[in-house]
Write a structure and sequence with these properties.
It catalyses: cytidine(34) in tRNA(Ile2) + L-lysine + ATP = lysidine(34) in tRNA(Ile2) + AMP + diphosphate + H(+). By secondary structure, the chain is an alpha+beta fold. 36% of the residues lie in helices and 19% in strands.
């Protein structure tokens, strides 16, 4: 990494700093450098430095992205500013217009950040890098916010100069540079930048820290941003070691749900782990499934509920966008969706001629959708000579799909020696209670043929190499 500036800035120093940082990175030959460009002083300095780098390295691709949030009356003029400055720098600029969700329980800052990154990351491929103009004072703000929220080492590690993204990497060349140095350099170079009026609104947490708190901290301890960054780096080192330990242990606690393709967390033996490891493993599981981490209090409540609930208890917890359920001594995670509960059983009948193309061999697969049916909307029908499959219906047999059969309904799966009641088979096949109402059952006239995705009734199974019908339900 390039060294921290301790001397007054000389002309060209900050551009040299940016170029040196980028030269040190292992950039792929076909790499695109995408700059999150707001037109503010810090991103203006980074755009200027990137233009200097681009002149020396024409082998790479470059893209500046301005995100138009529509939150300010000045947003159109800011977008025009970025387009003009990009032309001045010789770098292409794209304006992305987004809509920010608003609501009484939503943080405008957080929602704007989320859609901003979503818009920018659309421009990234696997070998590309995203450049952001976060600087040392931004790092101090992030650390203070992490302290305010009660975060542990992961949160206190704040921002890294190099971080992985879903596609590519994020680079922060100015993370070891102070706001004062950036502003002085912009003035030196005569860089034109915009001033976002919302930066003076201290109702936003970052602005409050920037306007009210950090100046007082710096007046007392001038080097606090630098020393706080060192603390963040130490937390990052400790977190990296912890992450390795968790990544080695976590797979032992995961398995694939019998009826879902998702990973679930096994609770066998979990109660015997120390409280610290219980928290670390469950945090690791939640994070591995792409959900935001709960607070310490929330996590402790989750652990208590999943460990102390009786086997037949319906554990159902919602934390933000994450739904947590327990079934068969396993923990399931889902993304929350407001769903209407299916009160009445639904059923639908196939037109008599629907299966003709499959039976006659004209096609090998059909997708069938029934309007108005809310629990199993799409049925996929396939003709196959392999795997469990049912015989095709005869011309005089009416084909229907029904839902929410009574638990006393007797079934005889092809893989079982004898029949059992449906309520017992739900347990045997590991189908969670909240999924059962969405599982479709296919009938020929009044005879049960299959539980879609689970079994074929033994009396309808096709033996040897005969052509038969396989059915899957894409919405479950």
């Amino acid at each position: 990494m390039s060294a921290k500036f301790d001397e007054p800035l000389a002309a060209g120093d900050l551009s040299a700093h940016i170029r040196a940082f980028l030269v040190e990175q292992p950039l792929a030959p076909d790499c695109k450098l995408v700059l999150a460009y707001s037109g503010g002083v810090d991103s203006e300095v980074l755009a200027f430095g990137l233009s200097q780098f681009a002149r020396q390295h024409p082998e790479f691709h470059y893209q500046l992205v301005y995100v138009h949030h529509g939150l300010s009356d000045n947003a159109d003029s800011w977008a025009q500013h970025c387009l003009e400055r990009g032309q001045h720098y010789g770098l292409p600029v794209t304006v992305e217009r987004v809509t920010v969700n608003r609501g009484p329980r939503l943080s405008l800052e957080a929602e704007a950040r989320k859609v901003r990154y979503q818009a920018i990351e659309r421009h990234l491929s696997a070998n590309d890098v995203l450049l952001t103009a976060h600087h040392e004072d931004d790092q101090l703000e992030t650390i203070l916010l992490a302290l305010k929220r009660g975060h542990g080492p992961k949160g206190l590690a704040a921002m890294g100069q190099v971080q992985a993204l879903a596609q590519g990497r994020q680079l922060r060349p100015l993370l070891d540079i102070s706001r004062e140095q950036i502003e002085a350099y912009a003035k030196q170079q005569g860089l034109v930048h915009i001033e976002d009026e919302s930066n003076q609104d201290d109702k936003y947490d970052r602005n409050f820290l920037r306007l009210e708190i950090i100046p007082r901290l710096k007046a007392r301890w001038p080097s606090i941003a630098t020393t706080a960054s060192r603390s963040a780096a130490l937390c990052a080192e400790q977190q990296a070691t912890l992450d390795v330990q968790v990544s080695e242990r976590l797979p032992l606690w995961l398995t694939q749900a019998p009826y879902h393709t998702q990973s679930v967390f096994k609770l066998d033996g979990f109660a015997e782990q120390s409280a610290d490891w219980q928290a670390l493993l469950l945090r690791g599981f939640i994070e591995s499934q792409g959900f935001a981490l709960p607070s310490k209090v929330q996590l402790n409540q989750i652990i208590t509920q999943v460990l102390t609930a009786k086997d037949d208890a319906k554990v159902h917890i919602r934390v933000g966008e994450c739904e947590i359920r327990r079934f068969a001594n396993q923990v399931y995670l889902f993304k929350y969706h407001a769903r209407p509960r299916h009160v009445k059983p639904a059923s639908w009948t196939f037109p008599s001629q629907l299966l003709n193309p499959l039976v006659q061999g004209d096609v090998t697969q059909l997708d069938v959708t029934s309007a108005g049916v809310t629990c199993g909307e799409t049925i996929r029908l396939s003709a196959s000579k392999q795997g469990p499959r049912a015989r095709f219906p005869r011309p005089d047999e009416v084909v229907s799909v029904r839902y929410q059969l009574a638990g006393q309904c007797r079934c005889h799966p092809h893989s079982r020696g004898k029949g059992r009641e449906l309520k017992k088979l739900w347990q045997e096949f590991g189908v969670p209670p909240w999924v059962r109402e969405k599982v479709g059952f296919m009938f020929y006239n009044e005879q049960l043929v299959m539980a879609i995705g689970l079994w074929i009734e033994k009396s309808f199974i096709v033996e040897l190499n005969g052509l038969g019908l396989q059915v899957s339900q894409t919405s479950v």
